[in-house]
Structure of Transcriptional regulator:
Amino acid sequence: MSEPSTGKPYGTVLIKANEILEFLLKTQDAPSLAQISAGLGMAKPTAQKILTTMNQLGMVRRDDQTKRYYIGTQMIAYAQKALASFDIAGAARPFLQKLRDETGETINLGVLRDSKIVLIEKLESPTSIKLQSIIGGTMNLYSSAMGKAVLATYTQSQLRQYFDTTKLTPLTPYTITSQTKLQADLKQIQQTGVSIDNEENESEVFCLGATIHKNHQLYGAFSISTPKYRLPKERRTEFVRLLLNTQHAIEAAL
């Protein structure tokens, strides 16, 4: 059997069904038929026919009382299968390599596992000193740039549970061990989109981090690690710009 063609997409109805799913995914409240039709610029009879078929297939669910549409539970199994087989390292690598080349510093990629960051990719700086992190190693959420970026996405309930089960043990003299100070730090991260590890995880090492997050799904986090002496204020500002540009590029490609 030949490989699928990468040419012009086939099947107008499939394309329109995908547009409907994308619309449902992005809207905060379940939309009505009229809202879907208006939002997509799709004729209401066309939208209704496609939605009826999607409803029969379990791709969407229509609430008969409110006449509003939701993504169907049939899609849960597909989402779980896709996440299980998704290779975030492979998807992010070209962008992280570009970031490494632009900064000349070490770039890390990690994923969340059991309230820790597991390092799954490390692109070494050509002029790097030896850093402690190794592929497969773990970092605390509260002390690492990648970890704090992830913690900043937590709800208050999730954060309380994390604090209830995690002791904020200092790794260096600069590790934040106060819940109040850490929460203030997380609020700053939520505002800027960038987390900072200022010798908190490893002495004399400064890291800037950000999450890879799309459609309410956290895929992981990445960071720029550098000896602190190589990061004056003006260079730090440039690194923040490059970090956020890389984040946006990765998320757009997912």
Q: What stands out?
A: Confidence is low (pLDDT under 50) at residues 1-6.
